[in-house]
Amino acid sequence: MTSGSPSLTVSRLAYAYPDGTQALYGVDLTIERGERVALLGPNGAGKTTLVMHLNGILTAGHGTVEVAGLAVRADTLREIRRRVGLVFQDPDDQLFMPTVREDVAFGPANLGLRGAELDRRVHDALERVGMLDAIDRPPHHLSFGQRRRVAVATVLAMEPEILVLDEPSSNLDPASRRELAEILKSLDVTVLMVTHDLPYALELCERSLIMSEGVIAADGPTHALLADERLLAAHRLELPYGFAVPAQPG
Amino acid sequence: MHVPDGFFNVPVSVGAGVFAAAGVAVCLRGAKRELDDRTAPMAGLVAAFIFAAQMLNFPVAAGTSGHLLGGALAAILVGPYTAVLCVAVVLLVQGFFFADGGLTALGVNITLMAIVTAVVGWAVFRLITRGRPRGRATLVAASFVAALVSVPSAALVFTGLFWLGGTAPIEPGSVAAAMVGVHLLIGLGEGFITALTVSSVLAVRPDLVYGARGMTRALTLRTADGDVQVGQQGGPAAPEAPSAGIGLRPVLVGGALVAVLLAGVVSFYASSAPDGLEKVAADKGLSAQEKPHAVEDGPLAGYSVKGVENQRLSGGLAGVAGVALTVVAGGGVFYVIRRRRRGTDGMTTASAQ
Amino acid sequence: MSAGHHHPIYRPADTPVHRLPPQCKLAAVVAFAVFVVATPRERVWAFALDALLLAAVAVAARVPAGAIVRRMVIEVPFVLFAVAIPLIGTGERIQVLGLSLSAPGLWAAWNILAKATLGVVASILLAATTEPRMMLLGAERLRLPRLLVQIATFMLRYLDVILDQMRRMRIARESRGFVARDLRQAPVLAKSAGALFIRSYERGERVHLAMLSRGYTGEMPTIRDISATGRDWAVAGMLPCLAAVTALLAWSTT
Q1: Is A72 in CB contact (< 8 Å) with chain C?
Q2: Are C223 and A158 a contacting pair at CB < 8 A?
Q3: Taking every annotated instance into account, which residue ranges of this chain make up the domain PDGLE (chain B) (predicted)?
Q4: For the segment C121-179, what is each residue's pLDDT rounded down to a tens digit?
Q5: Whether C223 and A105 lie within 8 Å, measured CB to CB
Q6: Helix H or strand E segment including A194
């Protein structure tokens, strides 16, 4: 692949929805290969809008998005969507096929894979999230946590350059939350994780971005950002009651 | 209203099946224009919504309750082509997955509950809203009338089919009176719920109401470099600008359909003092059934031998011929319009009225 | 009216009927229904034969009679209608238990009851022995337009999700003391319907985005395919063929 260029580069990205509401006012960020980065911010900060730009679902009103050196444009969409794996917040939106197997195969099949190669991708992806047993079950018979893991597998099967997760820990019970964290840590892929769940960000990501009112308001080590109470308060972010940021490791 | 097997004779069932298949085929193409590559997921979700909405029972009068048919509602919310497709899929799924509605009656059911309700509903809606300022009140009132008219229309078409090939010896006149009467009442409920539903969607997401397109304005994109004018393409919900031709086609199809049916009903009453004939036929009674007409020996000919056999038989044959004619005529109209529209597509981008 | 019957009929089992490829079963059941409808109503024995055929299928598929009967409730509105036909029908009247009934009306009622019942039972057997997913694959094999099959696929996938949302809205309404008594309560129901539509539509948009994100370009990839052998067709064809023979016999014994 194009070694050297960062996994994701966004520069001066601005966007307004067709109804006139402007959501992004010039976003700049760079994520290097292999990094796990959290994107924090209150509701309405523009996080989801930004995510929609990363694989070209929304087209930039202004500015550019590059994935591993390739600019998001109408003629590069196919390759961009292979490189950017988007995991939606509601797994029911993501798992639209009648069985887990067909759902995980949907992406690679769109890339043109068939037969043994397709089967291998499906098996590998499900194995990495520990859901191989559920391969022939319909998604709506799985628990919520299981569905989210399968949703991650549907994206992993495309062997993406960068995995983008929208609120990965929402609606999960504590055990599922921990299992998903272990899976994400075990993956050898660049991760951008959009979340309100600050402890989860701290556990999984060394670096965090705080997004507020359509721009990146802060960028730094998660540990340092979460320890700055004034910064958090200024952007409507709060640590859960009773949670204290542990002393800097190492 | 799900008609079971055995209610209509074979010619009418097959004729309605051919008509329904042709209608669905036309709508598959139309829906692709309304929704392009979003057709499968969007129509699937809307079909699931209609299935669910049909379970909303509302009390009609004196202990009886009706439920939404949803054809007119779907046409106003998502456009006539998609609406026909969605209701047709609902009926197919109910028939094959839930054993609801006879498989041989699928053509009749799709014709009545998908095509007639959606097409009539949409035609009425367009007639009322066309050329008027599209305020919310107009749209809601139009939705009410459209849904109100759509239900007795389906009942009327049912009566027409029943006259052509029903298997029960009931006078078409009394069937018409009873069906249309009851369905006027149900139509009131349908109109009420449809209007209120459209109204509540208009209040929250007016951009989702297909029948309200043309209310949206041009947009400005405010970027770091100042204001930039943008078109509406690119967004996930980018609504296609409706073109003037869309409203016309369903009107024509609906018109043709109603014309054929009216022609049938009117000629029935004009040519054959029915009471007298029924009386004569009744005197023949069962004896007539023991020696059927020669043409009826084939298993696919009008098998339902009842009082007025010759007339019913000719009625059945006329039914097939009539439906075939309608299909041919409808197809011809579509073809001509499509050719004409293709020529003008380039300049219909913003002609909302 | 028949809304409300949305519980799946499928009964998982491993029988010869379950194992038949879905396209064979679909075609067989539709053909069976056509032949039943084409059978003259005066030949009561022909319908008895058809019923025996279905009973044989039910035994082979190990679908218990109770399950079929419970499902047949779906017919009830038309049973009521059929019962009314002899009372309001035209034609020669005969006296039964002091009631004046129309003779052709009685035949018509019998005709509808017999054919509707056979049709419903055949459909129940199809749905009980065919997984919904397989039914869709079978429909596609039978050349039903692919777009139509895809719409049905999405509909079935999201039906439970949407019915569940509707159930939650109903619980929310009722937990605040709402009872639908007459049309005056319609605005509340309509608001629910409106909200349900918006949720369904928005979910459709999100599903479309999820599809785009994984490389969808307007064509669903075919991943699974099921083929039927000549033997499968022969086995499935037994039901409609026997029904056809019955119908022919019924016609020829006039």
Answers
A1: no
A2: no
A3: 250-339
A4: 999 999 999 988 889 989 988 988 888 999 999 999 899 889 888 889 888 888 888 77
A5: yes
A6: strand A190-195
Is the CB of residue A19 less than 8 Å away from at least one CB of chain B?
yes
DSSP string, chain C: --TT--S-------SHHHHS-HHHHHHHHHHHHHHHHTS-TT-HHHHHHHHHHHHHHHHHHT--HHHHHHHGGGGHHHHHHHHHHHHH--S-EEEETTEEEEHHHHHHHHHHHHHHHHHHHHHHHHHHHS-HHHHHHHHHHTT--HHHHHHHHHHHHHHHHHHHHHHHHHHHHHTTT----SGGGHHHHHHHHHHHHHHHHHHHHHHHHHHHHTT--S-PPP-------HHHHHHHHHHHHHHHHHHHHHHHT-
Sign of CA dihedral C76, C77, C78, C79: positive
The answer to whether C208 contacts B95, with C-beta atoms less than 8 Å apart, is: no
- Is B226 in the A-facing interface, judged by CB distances under 8 Å? no
Which residues from chain C sit within 8 angstroms of residue B24, using beta carbons?
145, 148
Contact by Cβ (8 Å): A162, A83: yes
The answer to whether residue C208 neighbours chain A at the CB level (below 8 Å) is no
Query: Is residue C209 within 8 angstroms of chain A, CB to CB?
Result: yes
Domains parsed from chain B with CATH numbers: 10-212+245-274+314-345 (1.10.1760.20)
Question: For strand A207-212 and strand A62-67, is the pairing parallel, antiparallel, or unpaired?
Answer: unpaired
Interfacial A residues in 200-239 facing C (CB < 8 Å): none
What domains does chain A contain, in order, with CATH numbers?
8-230 (3.40.50.300)
- How far is C172 from chain A, CA to nearest CA, in Å? 20
Please give the ipTM for the structure prediction.
Answer: 0.89
The answer to whether B225 faces chain A, any CB pair under 8 Å, is yes
Q: What is the pLDDT of residues C48-94, one digit of tens each?
A: 999 999 999 999 999 999 888 888 877 777 777 777 788 777 777 77
CA B49/CA B190 separation, integer angstroms: 16
**Residue C220 CB-density burial (10 A; 0-12 exposed, 13-18 middle, 19+ buried):** buried
Q: Tokens for A164?
A: 């983008």
C-chain residues near B95 (CB < 8 A): 123
Split at pLDDT 50, 70, 90, the class of A242 is: confident
Chain A nearest CA to B128, separation (Å): 27
Segment among A152-161, C111-120, C217-226 with least mean pLDDT = C217-226
